Amino acid sequence: MSTRFRVAFAVTAVVGAFGAWWALRPSWQVPLPTMANRSEVRMQDFRDALYFPLREFLAGGNPYDPAAMFAHWPVRQIFNFYQPYHLALHLPFALPGYRVGAVAFAVVSLLLLVVLAGMAASRLRSRVPLVLGTAVLATLLVLSQVGKAQLYLGQVNPLVVVGAAGALLARSSHPRLAAVALALAWLKPQFGLPLTILLFARGSRSTALAGTAVAAIASLPVVVLLVLRGGGVGPFLDAAAANLTYATGTDYGAVDSPTGQRVDLAAVLYRLTDWLAPAAEPVALAGVLAVSVLLVRRLDRLGDADATAVADLLTCLAVVVAVVHQPGDVLLAVPAATLAAVVWWRRRRERGWPLAGLAVAALAVPFAHLHVVDSAVRALFSARAAVTLDGVAVVAAWLVLVVFAARHTRAALAARSEALSAAGRPEWTAGRAG
User: Fold this and answer.
1) Which of 41, 136, 372, 382 has the most crowded Cβ, counting Cβ within 10 A?
2) Cα(245)–Cα(253) distance, rounded to whole angstroms?
3) What parts of the sequence cross the membrane (predicted)?
4) What is the chain's Cα-based Rg?
5) What is the sign of the dihedral through the CA atoms of 235, 237, 242 and 247?
């Protein structure tokens, strides 16, 4: 590493260390949870989706039962349908006292953000030293709104997105590792389901099936234990039904919530139009996946590294846009977006490629949506505009990339057909080759 790179690394490390310390502070500053302060936002996801659900599980109860959770523990949100293996995987963080568990979880989450940055930097190692690239990207993450929110709220997203991004990165070179990574992405089914479908469609069938099987097998013992404890399958299903009913009526989870921060297509369309189409969520899921599957397959068939980079980013955006997701879930796209940005910059003067750059820029909006930006949007427009901004940007990024992918594949196939025709091959052979 040259002197210039050493200086850049040292400066980045100092800034990153300060950003990390600042982002970690809520984990030791938040007051211990009580029934009186359950509205506390700091570390609320660690409290509501990890620590106390695991405490309920250890006490012999069913954390998926909203009534039990609200009666026994100081939580504000229900324990959503995380994969049951979550209750075993994160058990170490619920065994000590709340403060120790919160700080430990925040530190591990920070390290996972660094791992995600390393994944992104690995895509650029031919241009930037891996250590420097990781330091720069990790620093940008902990200073961004999306990165800070993971640690401020105590979200489990860092592990999920490392799994999802890892499955996408390793699917060709290390399919077994990719399957394990996909199983981690299944911790949140809204990641696992669309990603599995897209990986299967892109030819990584063994990874898609094996990863899903690993997640199911890991969850089975926990499910069996919950069923036996609860008195049978019937009570377990009743608790699951109550969980779903409650989730669809909350101000943060309902598709028709005017104050929710969801960034998926169905929710964004509602907040823009105040109109909820019949079966909006399943229709959006099916539509986004159908369009995305068609285009990523076309991009992959071009056999071009740049087209594959775009396909990876389109895969990530489709996962987020297809089904219920929050702004922090765009972390999934960090490695793919990093490479796509480099590809766009190299080809920015070529016809059509400015659209790819526009998609990457739109995807950056949630990361740049800091408190000062949010305050300005609220002052100039409204609170609803502030909570809708990220969703509009993410959906716009997906739409722009869809347009780019359609045009790029059409132009590439046309150029290939012309080249084959010029070489004297029959027309039907040229069409078959495309």
Assistant:
1) 136
2) 11
3) 7-24, 100-121, 128-146, 177-201, 207-228, 275-295, 353-373, 385-406
4) 23
5) positive
